[in-house]
Amino acid sequence: MNTPLQRRFAVAPMLDWTDRHCRYLLRLISRHALLYTEMVTTGALLHGDAARHLGYDAAEHPVALQLGGSEPRALAGCARMGAEWGYDEINLNVGCPSDRVQNGRFGACLMAEPGLVAECVAAMAAAVEIPVTVKHRIGIDDLDSYDALARFVATVAGAGCRTFIVHARKAWLQGLSPKENREIPPLRYDLVYALKRDFPALEIIVNGGIASLEDAARHLERVDGVMVGRAAYHDPWLLAEVDRRFYGDGHAVPTPHGVVEAYLPYVERQLAAGVPLTRMTRHLLGLFAGRPGARRWRRVLSEGAHRPGAGSDLIRAALREVPPETVVREPLSA
């Protein structure tokens, strides 16, 4: 895209969750939220089925590709591939704490090597014209002081990175699972705010523990953008107010029923291409969260999507279990 990315609100890259089918669904709810792919390793792109990892629908824009790796030349090559496929941003993962990622010498463990991260960013930025950004933690293990965090940001910014997406928890590289690392280390939003204070020319995006648009609005008083993860996945309708509230776009948003109806042609195209129905219905389960009929909706989809021959008619049957709603909102007046 030729217009600058507006990162005021983004949906986080989530492994096994933010695949192309999820992103297409979310885009039906918000026109402007920046969407991220699951993390893709350089090895998967350079030695595997690149098209499987990089393919997406043009309707997903704006969409960013998140890469995992630590070898500058490999990352540069993969960044170039992402740009050629039309992604709007390339993001480097410096936040994942899993053992598998650490064994590959990338993810959160790279926070201990800001010089290497800077080399990676410089190589990627030289290879593409689209933005190269970094998603990282506030620290790892005992390397968790603000001074260490600020040195990391200053070093990587010196290599050309202008946007830092900061998960406001540190990561323990040993002793905690990835899930525990999302919950146990305390949130330190104050450190993220301090980065914005001390690096006013950089774009600082806060991530971690943001559960509502009210939370997001409070953070936007202190930083440039917010990134929401599991809250947006488990309740996709959270995005329904994003365009109006954070981008000043008062277009009419369809009801949840309308979103499902708009998703059905996509489902049918994917089924015709051989994609199993379950890969798409699993992202629909939370769409009616907290609404009458939500439990029946989930049950019909969960019990039926894996059956041989299941198709879009199953989604229509599930939709009949949910009472219809009226239009959620009207456009803002001119």
TrEMBL record:
What are the alphabetically sorted keywords of the record?
A: Flavoprotein, FMN, NADP, Nucleotide-binding, Oxidoreductase, RNA-binding, tRNA processing, tRNA-binding
Q: Where is the DUS-like FMN-binding domain?
A: 11-314
Q: Where is the active site?
A: C96
Q: Which GO terms describe its molecular function?
A: flavin adenine dinucleotide binding; FMN binding; tRNA binding; tRNA-dihydrouridine20 synthase activity; tRNA-dihydrouridine20a synthase activity
- Taken from the record, one Pfam family name reads Dus
Residue positions binding FMN: P13, M14, L15, Q66, K135, H167, N207, G208, G209, G229, R230
* Catalysed reaction equations from the record: 5,6-dihydrouridine(20) in tRNA + NAD(+) = uridine(20) in tRNA + NADH + H(+); 5,6-dihydrouridine(20) in tRNA + NADP(+) = uridine(20) in tRNA + NADPH + H(+); 5,6-dihydrouridine(20a) in tRNA + NAD(+) = uridine(20a) in tRNA + NADH + H(+); 5,6-dihydrouridine(20a) in tRNA + NADP(+) = uridine(20a) in tRNA + NADPH + H(+)
Tell me which residues are marked as the site Interacts with tRNA: N93, K179, R182, R295, R298
Record EC number:
1.3.1.91
Q: Cite the CDD domains for this sequence.
A: DUS_like_FMN
Q: Which residues cross the membrane?
A: none
Q: What does this protein do?
A: Catalyzes the synthesis of 5,6-dihydrouridine (D), a modified base found in the D-loop of most tRNAs, via the reduction of the C5-C6 double bond in target uridines. Specifically modifies U20 and U20a in tRNAs.
Record-given protein name: tRNA-dihydrouridine(20/20a) synthase
Annotated organism of origin: Thioalbus denitrificans
